[in-house]
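Listing S7. Sequence submitted for prediction.
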Amino acid sequence: MPNNLKPFLARLATGEKLTEADAEAAFDVIMSGEATPAQIGALLMAMRVRGETVPEITGAVRAMRARMTAIEAPDGAIDVCGTGGDGAGTLNVSSAATFVVAACGIPVAKHGNRALSSRTGGADVLTALGVNVDAPMEKLASILKSAGCVFLFAPRHHPSMRHAAGPRVELATRTIFNLLGPLANPARVRRQLTGVFAPEWTRPMAETLQALGHEAAWVVHGMGLDELTVAGDNHVSALANGIVHDFKVTPEDAGLPRAPIEAIKGGDADHNAAALLAMLKGEPSAYRDTVLFNTAAALIVAGRATNLRDGVAQAAGAIASGAALNALETLRRASAP
């Protein structure tokens, strides 16, 4: 295979789409450090302008997974994460749902990062809560086993991504890399609840997970958010039994009241951490309802809930019993230096 991107760029310049194998080879060139910044920028924009395809995303994910630092995870582990990029600045939903899902007995290998497009990313809020997001790599598998959840800090597991960092910053626009992170979980989970920044990406992302051999997934978008929202309709592309199907869900489907997106507006890391802690202690709020909604979807993906109302009931019980708060405290102790 070529050790630079020139052959791929020549084909993309004519409007050609890359096969999965070609995309894997091209992104391996990028992640090996053998491509120039100009070549990387040209490839990313050629794909963005034309529109990335499922084979191209799948090949890129395979290249990313091949170079990541992986950890062992128990069978049935799940990831709950989003692409980011919705620009809404809400409270941290997937990080909060991590503790509620774990409290329901499902191991959660939470893949995440610091704030990139929002004020407070998962790593930021967890740090404010006392979780050590830089725990030794060799301890992560045991932390997941003992605590029922673990935070996998993306830059530590995907060091080869640094080769694309410069061009991505200089382009200052969405590229395929915004889609890849949630698809390359370092624990190699086969079940995911994944939020995306735009509704047109739910099905391509689900089809990519299908191509990668995942067992089950919900890829969701809710009224501008990369998560399910209680503000209105939510787009879902679900992978189950090897088939992807699309549908919409509302908070009423889960037995939850509606609330505007403004009701879960976030702030800095300390503000979001305080809200998350209050939610885990059982304080009623639109934030709690949003976390219940997303947790319910995760429990369906994990095979633990039969429908959204069932999942909400389990999630509410995990909060009311103190088990969700205990999951946070256990992770804090397990990850301590």
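Caption to Listing S7: primary sequence and predicted structure tokens for the chain studied. The beta strands are 79-82, 108-112, 149-153, 191-195, 216-221, 234-240, 243-249. The CA atoms of residues 254 and 309 lie 5 Å apart.
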